[in-house]
Fold these 2 entries.
Entry 1:
Amino acid sequence: MSDTPLGRSTPEIGAADGLQRLATYPYAIATWVEADGYPVSVALAADVDLAAGTATFDAPAGLSVPTDRDVSLTGSHIRPQPGYGYDERRHVTVWGRLTPAAADGGRLTLAASAAWGWDEAEVPFFEYSERSVGRARTYFDALSRERGTPVKPRLSFGFLVLRATRLPFLSATIVPVVLGIAIAATHGSFDLVAALLTIVGASFVQLAINVSNDVFDTAQGADDANVTPTQFSGGSRVIQYGLVTFRQMATLAFALYAAGAAVGVVLLAVRGSPALLVIGVVGFVVGLGYTAPPLKFVYRGLGEIAVALGFGPLMLLGAYVVQTRGALSWEPFVASIPVALLVALILYVNEIPDRRGDAHAGKRTLPVRFSRRAVIRGYEAAAGGAFVAVVVGVVAGVLPIPTLAVLLAVPLALRVRSGLEPNYDNPYGLMAVMGVNIRLHLYVGLLLIAAYAVVLVVTAVAPGTRLFVG
Amino acid sequence: MSTLPEPVERLLEVALVGELSVVNDAGRPITYPLIPLYDGEKVYLTSSVLFSRKLTHIKGNPRVSLSITDPVAVGGRTDRATIQGDARVIDEDPHGGWERLLPIWERKEPAIVAFLKVRVALPLFFERSLIEITPRRALYWPAGGAEVAPMVTPVGAGTEAA
């Protein structure tokens, strides 16, 4: 029984392994099908003999246990959690035929022939669910055939949009765009309508990238192969879950790209410059080529660089030149470096739990290519580099002194670093680490924006105040 | 109308987990731990479409049994029961049809309501079918041990010895 491209919903258990597991439960539930066709179960004490591959128990009083058909022995465990429910779920069933041991006082011996079970300590519930998606699809297909009309899973429109576009990740766009606008404002250039159009257009582009990423990852098998997705990784999975069709997602991606392009054309028309045109074209190629053939940056180990470029300098400089009508300077470029590094690290950390599925689909991300130690060292270097870039920028007189406030976020980077090692092979333990890592990018971005707000205010109320070193 | 002996009803009402046994098309029993929900007449269980193999088995053979055996899951009670019955899969509306049992479910697993509020995180888990069991016979072990024959109660009739 294969429910996913990577195999069964639960790990295969041999009869011997099943017996070994059964022996750890305080009692067993013997089940068989009676002559009238109803199954019947009775709890009893079973003695497991691992060497013989058998379990022996006293014949239950008042019931006739058959020897001409399979009997099962099941062990089941939960731990009640008052006010919550329960946890520590595990169960195992061992099947076999009984041989009566009349000389042994009516004891019965089951020769184990097959076993099945699940232990959430071995296969976490979310992974078990993901491995069972094929089973859900089979069930909906059968329901559709029964009724002669398609039966599909559903989500409310709001939840569906949220999930399909991965809307909460828009901070990756908002941060660099608003920062670029803020820096331009400190340079004396600000147009509110252009600023709003930039935010809207860039948001459309990011949502288009998110959706097209799912389309191309599905087409190339990466999302199907991933059985350990988290809320931060593994794509939106709306296609895998049957909530949206592949064609609908492709159409949505096209519509979002078209909306983003339309806003870009308007901006080019009213605030146009050669710099904006170049940034727009490069951004489009990097965004679409992230997962789309023939470029497929993320499949070639270039995903982090593409994301850093797209959601760092390109977004930030694009927003900046819209305001300045094409004038460029070093300051927005240097300010984009920490943003670029930290947004790339979001992808980088999110790729750690995806690495088995990514490898299966030929997606050569950095966590697929490098060892655990090298990946963690890489995180240290890039996160450290983000903070060093700001300090060097300030010392060099390129960035204003208030941007040193980003150092307040160093503890978050340290929390991520310390969480990577113990959770590297635990996708669900890694979820909290991924959350902190996303906050790191957001907080550094907000601190940079706040720093430029301070520059604006100080310049307005106390002109001549020294805000740069040198 | 109550159809089960009172002690069996009490077990159903408190049990956090029971063992549903179904019969596959090869005639082999397969046992699944599930939360039993009892409305005073019929026993209900719910199953996500993710784990729907049991539903397919029931559609092929509706004869099932449900056992309450784990003292830990029934607040330390040591009595045990098995209910045999005919099951029906109710899956007209997997998206929301099962929610009518949410109040009973919530009493046993309060966290389920919070999970349901964020069903966007686990959309297929909350696409569920109901399993409705009409009891036909109840086997009850007052002391829990299999060394004593169970009290057997056919539905709608008096208690008999096994």
Entry 2:
Amino acid sequence: MKNAKIGFGLSTLLLLALVGCGGGDSSAPAPAADAPPPAPPVDLSQTGSLAGVVTFSNGDDPDIVIKMDADPVCAGLHSGPVESETRLADGSNLANVFVYVKSGLEGSFNAPAEPASLNQEGCLYTPRVSGIMVGQTLKVVNTDPTLHNVHAVPSNNPEFNQAQPFQGMELERVFESSEVMIPFKCDVHPWMQSYVAVLDHPFFGVSGTNGSFSIEGIPAGTYTVEAWHELFGTQTSEVTIGAGDSTDVAFSFGG
Amino acid sequence: MAAPTPPSKTPDRHYDFRSLNVVFALSSLALLAVTLFMVMGDFGRPWKRYQSEFRDLERAAILKELEAERQSLNQDQIATVNSEIAAERQRLEERRGEIDSLESDIVAFDREIFGSDAAMRATKSELDAQKYVYDSALQRGEEDSITEERETVASLTSTWMDERRTVQELETERDAVEGELEEAHSALTASEAKLNDLNAALSGLDVRLETVAKDIDYFMLNAPLMDFLQPTLRIEQVVLSGLFHDINFTTIDRVDRCQTCHIASGRTGYDGEEWEEPFRSHPRLDLFVNDGSPHPYSQFGCTACHGGLDRATDFARAGHTPVAEEQLHEWTAGLGWERQKFLETPIHALPFAEAGCLSCHADQVWTPESHTADTGRKLILKMGCYGCHKIDFEAFTDLPKVGPDLRKVASKTNSAWATKWIRAPREFRQTTWMPHFFYGENIKGAENEAFQEAEIASIVDLLWESSETVSYNPVRAGNAARGEALFNSIGCTGCHVIDGEGSREDYLDNLERLHGPNLIGVGSKVSAEWLFAWLKDPKQYRPDTPMPNLRLEDQEAEDLTAYLMGQRNPAWEGLAREPASSVARGRLVLEYLQATMTIEQSEARLAEMSDEEQSLFLGRQSVSKYGCFGCHTIAGFEETKPIGVELTEEASKPTHLLDFGHVHEVEHTRNDWIRTKVQRPRIWDQGKELVKNFGELYRMPNFGMSDREADAVTTIVLGFTKESVIEQRKAGNSPLTPTLAAGRKIVSHYNCQGCHLIEGAGRAIRTAMEDDSNLPPNLSAQGARTQADWLFGFLHDPSSVQLRPWLKVRMPTFDFSDEQANGLISYFAALEETVPFASDPEPADPRSLGVGTEIFAMLQCARCHPAGEDALADLGGGTADLAPSLLLGPERLRHDWVASWIKDPQGWVPGTRMPTNFPVLPDGSFSSPLPNVIDTPPFADAKRSMMRHFDSDAELEEFLGDVDRVSEALRDYIWSL
């Protein structure tokens, strides 16, 4: 077949020569387009860290007590009143603020193989605020002897709502898209709430009860860093991180 | 003897060879030139350039992909496999002698088998012949030869059996040797297969690369004069029988050639930035072009939806329509584009592309997924275009009038308010759908303004004169704060907003929220007594109102009245009501009289008329002139025909029949005309001040449309065509369409989607709610979910059942007729492609019921669902806030649906609070957690109870591990409650 086509082609050439017509422009095939160079690997020797304290300008810290009476099992798991973590503040510092590098990073980062965990313990989600990476497994455990349902309501990932009626039940999920934040709720116990951020890099931290947070191993560079709080919204800050340096950044939320 | 005459100089022909040679030479050159010109013209057709360019682009893309693929290949792995192959080859080489001998053994065996097999076959045929001979001897009864023949048969049979055995033995031996040989090669084969797998993606790309190469074949096949044989550059066309193209007095089948240039329109993956038109994938291949989609290219082509000249292969002739001025210039300069003046159906410009949906979907009320066209439909319904313009499509026929009934208007508001309102409704309330009839752009000069004021005053006089007066009881003072809380929680916000800042544009994606009027300033409009009576029972004022009855207690209605009457607009109240000029009124009356009387008679008649008579006369004339009765019921005009032009085939009107007046700033195309008309309805009077008098000016009112609103309305109006499509292709061909259409009309008229999610759209009330847990239910799957009898009862009287007692939002009573209730029930069933009535369930299997009883407790279902009076008490009352009572299940829910719901609630109603009890496995299937826990101490009693129905532990575990049977067991338990 191929030979026939070539023979046919040659006769055409001959014919064209006789007719004396130049034929179409026989431009050479387009040269191969160069593939873009793969993303340069991140040079992890040139890294610095970011640390800081989240302050809370409105010192008002009402003790919001959760009423767990609706489920006697939950109430029985605690000896005293349970305070809501919605606005956990220690005097002038604010806890459960999620701080992460929002933009400016280049390159790709591998997700850790070990799963992150989210526990339902004493009818509360622990931790209340956390971060994981795209592709990392999130393991949700129910250590309570009562029914919980793990109801995640993401915007960029598929929603799911899974009951865990038995103590010790686990479920594992992997999120494919980054998203700050995915709210987790339990419809049986409306006070239960958790927020999980999914990022495509490992540079995030959550402020502790003393308001402090730190993020290690950030490649040197200039970034936009965002702090997120469930009630008070977000704040951003531009920071420059030098190799081997520890950079300070402060966020202040007001009630 | 005469001297020989010299040869005559006159030729023996009447033509001269020499000069003819010149003529022939010249004409053959001319012919050659023309031929060459023709050949080159054909060779250089623009679509060929696109195809060639696409080939280059695709080649580059494949090369890029190849490169990326090579990069991503694990070179180490390949090297390992390659060295394995080499080592294996080496090992085989070392065993060469052995392998050679095996191979020659096989050859020898084959030869021997061939010989033996031939011998065996010969014996077999001899045997068959002998059997015949023996049989014949038997037939003839020749005793002596029978014995002899029988012996021959026996001896041949034994020979044949021996030979057969030999062949089979040889074959077995040969197979054994072959096995040995294969065994020796197996490691090599495996390694080679591994290498192939690693390179599979590469070789796939290589094959693709070959198909787009520009090699010698490509140039030969597409060379001038040769390209008629088997060119690779060729016109791609599809014949669409059943979709017609109107060519005056007859229709012909469409033949779409668009894919000649839009080569990748039906392929996936051509949507990255590097792909530009005409080489991009269609953006919605899930809906269009693809074979698996509802509109495959082979059946619908392109022009059936997009418009344009189906057979054209030239950019300009195809009827491409630029989106903006900038694109127009770009196309004119770069692509030789010019407007096709004689093409009646150019391609819809991108903002109006969804107009094409209506060719087939017009009788479905709305087309799922066509957002712009559907917004246009809603706007036409809200603005009431169908009040003046007949639009003979299902969505716009047999509808009640869009505006309020004015036959009792005097007991609702006051005439000062009405005067100011008619003059400029949007000044009272920006979001109103009532258009501006007065002070339009074509009304110029003090005289015309005086005429308008006279018209407004006389219309109000007429309305008040003809209005019935109802006396309402006085209202007790309510609590406005409680009223506000009620307004925001019981569901008023599904249809009403109270918004003095926002414009209609802000609600364009939630038009349901503007279904009823924006109540800003309503305290300046209506009386408290009227409002209280209206809230308690809207139908006493207007029998055909879509406003439902919220079953308000007196106290609730009083609180709401107090809250709403507090919504005042002091600036508006302070506006003076201009007195109308009696001179202007007199002149208008005279003009109307002169239509039927002589000048003298009419002047005499005018002189006889009192002020009041004049005003009522002009009022009646003005209501007729502006067509107020198109949207409002007005006493004396109940049966008057609407005044507007029918729009059913508006977009099939030839452009030259559209009146552009003296306006040149607007392009003279159909879509520019429609879009300008809806946004500036009176623009065509520009420059006609001396030509037209007051009564002849355009009267279409101005709706104050934003650009997006105008685009949406233009889109749907462009879909009003006389498109001919055979019935089989119409979307309405399905037997369910009339049911769907009827249901959608009810849903649209009563604004069900203001609160509920139906067909994936709606729940506009969500934007007004802080807490999603108070949202009205999602009605996805309603048809599969509830029983027809129950739903019928519920629609008639929603207060008959406390389904979700925790909801503050209240399902109102719409006073549906039986026909409407049944229409909705059939509609929901049709959406689920099921029948509305389910057959009675079989009695439950005792085993299933027994297991269900125990699992119900194990899975703690009662933690959310009250399953009885005592269950409520057990949980301290918290349960009532979470899920419907299961006692309602058997009368409300469909038996055939419940098990499937228990298994996968999110699959039925995404976002529901009901969780699945069955963990989802990576492959998407569900698994049961019960077998893992059944042997733990807390469930010992449960297990003992269930074991009464099973013979062994294994049998019980098998049952508990089956998600479907567990779900059915739960359902059976619920049905026993």
